[in-house]
Amino acid sequence: MRIKKLMITLLLSVILIVSSALPVSAQNNQTASILINGEILEKAAQIIDNQIYVPLDALQNKLGNNLQYTYQDGKVSINTGDAAVQQAVQKVSQSVVGIIGNISESSTSYYDYGSVLVFGSGVVYRSDGYIITNAHVVEDMENIVVVLSNGKAYSARLKAIDEKCDLALIKIDKGRLKPVVWADPSSITEGTTVMAIGTPLSFSLRNSVTLGIISGLNRTIDNTYRFIQSDAAINSGNSGGPLINMKGEVIGINSVKYRGVGIEGLSFSIPVDTVLYAMDHFFKYGRIIRPYLGAELEEGVAARYGLPSSEGLTISKIYDGSPAEKAGLLEDDVIVEMNGVKLTTIIDYNEETKKYMPGDTVIFKVIRDEETIEVSVKFDEEKL
pTM score, two decimals? Predict the structure, then answer.
């Protein structure tokens, strides 16, 4: 018991004892590397008296809500399975809101919906009332009302919107809200268990939860930015709600579902890095400011069909007075790199330009008449 109490102190309050038949050569007070699904645990295990002591905090960091623990009064309480799912949902549910309003009479959808209420979902971005949702949820909505998880409703104002990212920022006059926790983009991998939370089909179903896995990354839908594909059920009204991991962290904002006879489990979410990119611009500039090249780009045949491609982007048109023209780029030039980053799809180009602002200069590697050259281009600002 003394050894166990000592290890509790040394290993950040708690330990997990894993029974083991160690080789004879294993001696006391050695360490062992622990692999979880092929990845080394960030903290080494301790070998004492022919037993392996694994830090629970390190396990929990690796496994997320697949393993939850508390330590109190000499007792370690561990939750897994359904309990882990419940804890992840509980962690984020207060940060998920319903959004409801009227379709504007000027909207092209007005005659489809009339004066009926339409709705969607959103997540709390800041505690002082800023809320993220999809652009398509609120772009034609009047009298926007946000309903919190406790059922209280507040009028909202549209603060910023970007149809290209399909993201919008709205504001209610309410403080002490609970913001969501954002996942590390590098932690998002295929096969990870995820949950979608939102308001599907009816406002009475607010904060419904569906479970699935990440089916794919870097998906393209409309040649703008990359999406996360999952098979968590998303229906009308889920738009703007979060896709979360088993730690209760938001990895994306739900946006699109493919519909049709025989189509199931194809849901798409805007990844966290694009969401945070948009929010950074919204708060700094009130909109997203994008660099402008002034050229139309075409993908190679393989890329257009979603196949692996090593072809670059062909310039099909250059606009008069554009940065592309001023820099000496020509139609039929093939852009293969921008500042050393390979470009084979329009998505590649759009994602890479998120790093730059108007006035920034980049170096394009270009193939022209079977010769590779470099062209320096100073971006202008993309006009709305």
Answer: 0.77
